[in-house]
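Please go through the protein record below and see whether the fold suits the sequence. Record follows.
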Amino acid sequence: MRPLGIEGAWVDTPTVFADDRGRFHEWFKGERFVDSLGQGLRLAQANCSRSVRGTLRGIHYASVPPGQAKYVTCVSGAVLDVVVDIRTGSPTFGKWEAVRLDDTTPRCVYLSEGLGHAFMALDDNSTVVYLCSEGYAPQREFGINPLDPSLAIAWPEDLVPRLSDKDAAAPTLEEAERQGLLPSFEACSAYRRSLAVAEFH
């Protein structure tokens, strides 16, 4: 697992075993997770999303605590997966990192509690599966507009974004901060430390 430039976000590139029958890889392994991050991933929900080309989902996040950590991979097609630092007080606040996830080169993205997540489908029928540390709770779920010009996420220019009405109406990062909707870097870090302590005691 390799850390990204945003603290709390990682890319995992599993080893693939291939022969004339096909291929096999372990897309999640708890002990590798603990060795790299110092904590496990509590599994509360597993999601599967299938999207037509150009579909843009996100930027989604949940209030902290407990937030919602995610471990994401693409099992069919391809997506541009984006992690956004929306934690006020973070040294990388407002920054984002993009990772291509596809069914050719298995790769996974982990984002810890308090980070924003979005992806755009690059192919028709792109299928993303992700493990979540907490279940969906509408009262704790929030969004940032993925086309916020202040974030300037480099979505593919050859695709017309297809957003849900909810995502299209989501506030900008600045508006969400002004409304007090964003998690703080301090609260997210403290919560993650408490999880690590609880797990190993």
The CA atoms of residues 9 and 111 lie 5 Å apart. The two ends are 24 Å apart (CA to CA). The helical segments are 30-37, 165-168, 173-178, 185-199. The mean pLDDT is 95.
